[in-house]
Specification:
The complex is a heterodimer of chains A (245) and B (79). Chain A is of the alpha/beta class. Chain A is built from 9 helices and 7 strands. Chain A has helices at residues 17-28, 40-50, 64-78, 101-129, 141-144, 150-170, 188-191, 195-202, 213-224, and strands spanning 8-11, 32-37, 54-58, 83-86, 132-137, 175-182, 235-238. In chain A, strands 3-2-1-4-5-6-7 form a 7-stranded parallel sheet, sandwiched between helices. In chain A, α1 (17-28) packs across α9, α3 runs parallel beside α4 and α4 runs parallel beside α6. Chain B is mainly alpha-helical and 79 residues long. Chain B has helices at residues 3-16, 37-51, 57-62, 66-76. The chains are: A alpha/beta (245), B mainly alpha (79). At the A-B interface, α4 of A face α2 of B.
Chain lengths: 245, 79
């Protein structure tokens, strides 16, 4: 089950905790992967660990020309893009009263607009081949909201609406578009939290622990597989019971 | 028959999987050739690629038959 031999995947934000785990998991199932992100050295390191069937293309997700180049270079490197994992994302947290326009715009631009642009660029080949998997990494806060993250929550909620629309547009071409909404996952992003903050968070998680990036990657492997061909427009919540929606 | 017409018809045959004989100039993509809205977008994009032209959205909307496509490309293509 979930064999991805012969498939190709482009993973953005692959230098991050969740993106890296997804890239590793897809690769382990047999897929060729293109790792994208902004930090070339971190991507090269991940590539070295994976070995063959791995490519690196750096790109900035707030730069339209960079995004088009990313799609082209990934297609050139692997011959096609079967699986697109839009994982790249940033945070610029602040209470709304104190949030600057540029922090709002930057987060929307990278997390939402960049994802749309890259998906549009990759869609064409998928339509032609009558096969594709788009997996957008959203967040539990896109559904529940979170104080201090109005921009991030808006972008992540936007991804869900966007995915549902794309899913309807592309279903007849055997392209599925789904979201994964992680809860609190142990990554460099959450490492910076104090023990007290972590305790506060865990009080809201019935599983009483943070999730692991591998637990998110397992969801991505499923949605990328042929077995998930009939699943589209959905959001898979992986959050230890933190929110049941 | 012009070279452009031949190339247009070839693209239509390939994209919609129809018989060449069905692709007459007055054939409507949606009503006669079984295209859906996504097919028409794909066709327009394929024409743009094949003839290195840009077909703006308002022009694309008016291209409903094979002949419409040939006429548009005839009057807008450089090659």
């Amino acid at each position: 089950m979930f064999d991805l031999t012969g498939k190709t995947a482009l993973v953005t934000g692959a230098s991050g905790g969740i993106g890296g785990a997804i890239a590793r998991a897809l690769h382990k199932q047999g897929a060729a992967v293109t790792l994208s992100g902004t930090r070339a050295d971190a991507l090269e390191q991940l590539k070295a660990g994976l070995g063959e069937r791995t490519h690196v293309v750096t790109a900035k997700m707030d730069d339209p020309t960079d995004i088009d180049r990313l799609a082209k270079e990934a297609e050139a490197a692997m011959g096609k893009i079967d699986i697109l994992v839009n994982n790249a994302g940033i945070t610029r947290d602040n209470l709304s009263m104190r949030m600057k326009d540029e922090d709002w715009e930057k987060v929307l631009q990278v997390n939402l607009t960049g994802t749309f642009r890259l998906t549009r660029a990759a869609m064409r080949g998928m339509m032609r081949r009558r096969h594709g998997r788009v997996i957008n990494i959203t967040s539990v806060v896109g559904v529940t909201g979170n104080p201090g993250q109005a921009n991030y929550a808006a972008a992540k909620a936007g991804l869900i609406g966007m995915s549902k629309s794309l899913a309807q547009e592309l279903a007849s071409r055997a392209i599925t578009v789904n979201c994964i909404a992680p809860g609190f996952i142990a990554t460099p992003m959450t490492d910076v939290l104090t023990d007290e903050q972590k305790k506060g968070i865990l009080g809201r998680v019935p599983a009483d622990r943070l999730g692991t990036p591998d637990e998110i990657a397992a969801g991505a492997v499923y949605l990328a597989s042929d077995e998930a061909a009939y699943v589209t427009g959905q959001t898979l919540h992986i959050n230890g019971g933190m929110a049941m929606i | 028959m012009s070279d452009i017409a031949e190339r247009v018809k070839k693209i239509v045959v390939e994209h919609l999987g129809v018989e060449a004989a069905q692709v007459k100039e007055d054939a409507k993509f949606i009503d006669d050739l079984g295209a859906d809205s996504l097919d028409t977008v794909e066709l327009v994009m394929a024409f743009e690629e094949e003839f290195s032209i840009e077909i703006p959205d308002d022009a694309a909307e008016k291209i409903q038959t094979v002949g419409d496509a040939i006429n548009f490309i005839n009057s807008n293509s450089k090659s």
